[in-house]
Amino acid sequence: MRFPVLPVVVFCAAGLFSSTVMANGETIYNSGCVACHGAGIAGAPRVGDKAAWANRIAQGTKIIYEHALKGFQGTAGIMPAKGGFTHLSDEQVKAATDFMIKASK
User: Fold this and answer.
1) Alpha-carbon span 15 to 92, nearest angstrom
2) pLDDT tens sequence across 5-63
3) What is the per-residue pLDDT for 104?
4) Enclosing domain of residue 78
5) Number of folded domains that form the chain
6) For residues 10, 97, 101 and 40, what is the CA-based torsion angle, rounded to 10 degrees?
7) Could you tell me if residue 13 is inside a domain?
8) CATH code of residue 82
């Protein structure tokens, strides 16, 4: 009995692409998040600014993820849901958020 090889290869390649490229936090950050988090627009904490991120990081990732995914308006500014990039999956937003947190510790 012969099994088709091509569908398996395509499926594996697609899975590899989605997990390595699409979930790469730095890539996602650079594709959109950098517009605000790179310059501090609308009160967005700049990536790498340890003081600006300290209180946010202290709240824990659960709260940070919630704000990133659902949006948040605070005293410093506003974070639109998914940064306005509603086409991103929750996993992609979390990956970008993780990148920003790691770069800001």
Assistant:
1) 15
2) 444 433 333 444 444 444 599 999 999 999 999 999 999 999 999 999 999 999 999 99
3) 98
4) 25-103
5) 1
6) 130
7) no
8) 1.10.760.10
